[in-house]
Design goal:
Dihydrodipicolinate Reductase, domain 2; Gfo/Idh/MocA family oxidoreductase; globular; alpha/beta; six-stranded parallel sheet; NAD(P)-bd_dom_sf; binds nicotinamide-adenine-dinucleotide; Rossmann fold; 14 strands; nucleotide binding
């Protein structure tokens, strides 16, 4: 089938085989001149196909509906009914292949359970010429990553495949990345502690079916957040409990040529959603605290408040992530944090077995990061 079936004529369909990131890398959702600039082609409609009409699809639809250039071409879900989009109901299919027989989308959004991402991404890349946005995590195992890599040569994987690392676009993360960049006197980030809690215990088996495990679901967010601040290098240890509903991972990283450890706690045994990350800069004794649930942050040095970030409460949290994500994705230079190289590095870390102490080998070590991606 390859890329031959459809000749995309929309703005993304025409341009996607050219390198999209030839300019300077932007930084984890921070708009640079390149990502802020609206390409001339964006006056043309962008035909979108949405695959999976579950919980997160609602946010995609809300943000897509705000963008005047977007047309919702079709939706796909074998179980859920068609959603309404700007007051109309688009053609709805039970199977993506059937939809791609009838439509030539410019963008396919895959918002299905995690363990279906790989096979749907391959089918979307080979069965259309569209740009493909896959919900995080891109894939659920390393074999699936290899399957995507194997497409390179026949499909422009780097130019067409993107992963919705939405946390990297959260306002408090962008604020924190800017603080670190603008305050070199703080020194390297010497330790990080991150805790992501979701009350999915109430959703029982459904949570495992949609998201796999707490580490599968939130670990990938934590790693994409880490990549905004430091260069993650390997997993040092991993423990999971409660059939995967809670976990404790340690990830090593490099910050300004200093090595550090990030302690990553994920759990679904929680009364409500609560997500925070704390970064410590031992050389200056600065602490940077970011609250991803409230989208707030502050930096303190001993008893002094150095800087703070608040939120006006006007924008729901997920909309605050996906609005800049789509702004970047639909530009001519999507942020590298959405790109295949970053997703591959995140997956290598996320799905790798941690290296036992003192044992050489593949372990959780990853190849060098592809771009700055906001790291300092
Ligand atoms: N819920 C969130 O807050 C959130 C946030 C960010 C990312 N995500 C990611 O998005 C993905 C979906 O999460 P969700 O919460 O929307 O799950 P969900 O279970 O609510 O929705 C998934 C939908 O996909 C449908 N589906 C299953 N197989 C399909 C197929 N082959 N083709 C088309 N549709 C299919 C299901 O019927 C269901 O309606 C997961 O990978 C998750 O990690 C979720």
């Amino acid at each position: 089938m390859g890329d031959r079936r459809h000749q995309g004529t929309g703005p993304l369909g025409r341009g996607h085989s050219a390198p999209l990131t030839s300019g300077p890398a932007s930084s984890c959702g921070t708009p640079t001149r390149a990502t802020r600039r609206r390409p001339e082609t964006m006056s043309e409609p962008v035909r979108v196909g949405l695959v999976g009409v579950g919980i997160i699809a609602r946010t995609h639809l809300e943000v897509l509906a705000e963008r005047p250039e977007v047309r919702l071409d079709f939706t796909v879900d074998p179980h859920a009914g068609p959603p309404s989009f700007r007051g109309a109901v688009p053609p709805h299919y039970r199977d993506m292949t059937e939809a791609l027989e009838a439509h030539q989308p410019d963008l396919i959004v895959i918002a299905t359970p995690t363990d279906t991402h790989a096979h749907l991404a391959v089918a979307a890349l080979t069965g259309s010429r569209a740009r493909v946005l896959v919900e995080k995590p891109l894939v659920h195992d390393l074999d699936s990553l290899d399957r995507l890599r194997a497409l390179e040569g026949t499909v422009d994987v780097r130019g067409r495949l993107f992963t919705a690392h939405h946390f990297a676009f959260s306002p408090e993360i962008r604020w924190a990345a800017r603080q670190i960049a603008e305050q070199p006197q703080w020194g390297p980030v010497t330790s990080i502690t991150s805790a992501f809690h979701d009350p999915y215990i109430l959703r029982g088996e459904q949570a495992f079916a949609s998201y796999g495990s707490s580490w599968m679901d939130s670990g990938v967010n934590q790693l994409s957040v880490l990549a905004c601040f430091v260069e993650p290098t390997e997993l040092a240890s991993a423990q999971e409990w409660d059939d995967g509903a809670s976990a404790w991972y340690v990830c090593r990283y490099r910050s300004r040529d200093r090595l550090g450890s990030a302690r990553l706690r994920t759990s679904w045994l929680a009364g409500s959603s609560s997500k925070q990350t704390a970064l410590h800069f031992a050389d200056s004794d600065v602490e940077l605290w970011i609250d991803h649930t409230a989208m707030t942050g502050f930096a303190a040095q001993e008893g002094t408040l150095l800087a703070s970030h608040g939120d006006d409460g006007q924008t729901p949290r997920k909309v605050a992530h996906y609005r800049p994500l789509y702004e970047s994705l639909l530009s001519d230079r999507p942020d590298p944090v959405l790109g295949f190289d970053v997703a591959a590095r995140v997956t290598e870390l996320h799905r790798a077995a941690p290296r036992p102490a003192g044992v050489a080998g593949r372990g959780g070590r990853v190849s060098p990061w592809p771009s700055r991606c906001g790291r300092r």
